[in-house]
Design brief:
alpha+beta, 168 residues
C-alpha cells in the first residue's frame, strides 16, 4: 500500500525556468533518498503536486514543503492509501501546462481558475486525474483525437521554455 497526498499552493515570487529546474532537481534527489515519487505542475504562479510513498516519508516531506517560504496558501486537496504508485518511475515528474482549451472540462476549469481555486478543492479527483494525464500524454490530444488535420493538438512543447517537457 502507498500513501498519497495531493496539494495546491501559490508562489510568493516569480519562478523563472532556472528556478523551477533547480526546485525539481533538488526534489528529485531528496525524494529518491526517501522512496518518494510524484508529479508537480506549475501554472500561472500556482503549484499542484502529488507526493506518494511510505506515509511517514510523505508527511515529513509535506511538512517541509508547507514551511517553504517560496509559496503560501498551501491547501491539501486529497490524502489516501492506494494499492500501487501512480508515478512509480518518477522521483518528481514536472510539467508547465499550456492553454486549457483542449482539455476535458473539469481539467480546463481547474487550470483556468487556478490550482488553489474551489474548482480544485471541490473536485480533487479531477485535479489528480489532471496530473495523471501528463504521465500518459492525454493532455496533448483534443477530444476526438485531433483537430481534423490528422495531427494531435494540445500543449505546445515550446511553451515549456528551457525546461525539458518531462523531468523524471
Amino acid at each position: 500500500m502507498v500513501f498519497q497526498l495531493l496539494y495546491s499552493s501559490t508562489a510568493t515570487r516569480d519562478f523563472w525556468p532556472d528556478d523551477l529546474f533547480e526546485l525539481v532537481e533538488k526534489s528529485r534527489r531528496k525524494n529518491a533518498e526517501h522512496a518518494l515519487t510524484g508529479m508537480l505542475l506549475f501554472h500561472e504562479g500556482q503549484f499542484l503536486q502529488l507526493l506518494e510513498g511510505p506515509e511517514p516519508a510523505v508527511r515529513a516531506c509535506f511538512t517541509v514543503v508547507e514551511r517553504d517560504p517560496r509559496h503560501h496558501l498551501v491547501k491539501v486537496l486529497l490524502t489516501g492509501v492506494c494499492e500501487q504508485r501512480d508515478f512509480p518511475e518518477w522521483t518528481m515528474g514536472f510539467e508547465r501546462p499550456g492553454d486549457a482549451w483542449n482539455l476535458p472540462p473539469a481539467w480546463s476549469t481547474i487550470l483556468e481558475h487556478g490550482f488553489n481555486s474551489n474548482a480544485a478543492s471541490e473536485h480533487p479527483s479531477a485535479a489528480k486525474d489532471l496530473l495523471l494525464s501528463f504521465q500518459y500524454g492525454l493532455h496533448t490530444q483534443a477530444p476526438g483525437g485531433d483537430d481534423g488535420s490528422g495531427e494531435k493538438v494540445g500543449v505546445d512543447p515550446k511553451s515549456v521554455g528551457a525546461i525539458p517537457k518531462m523531468i523524471r
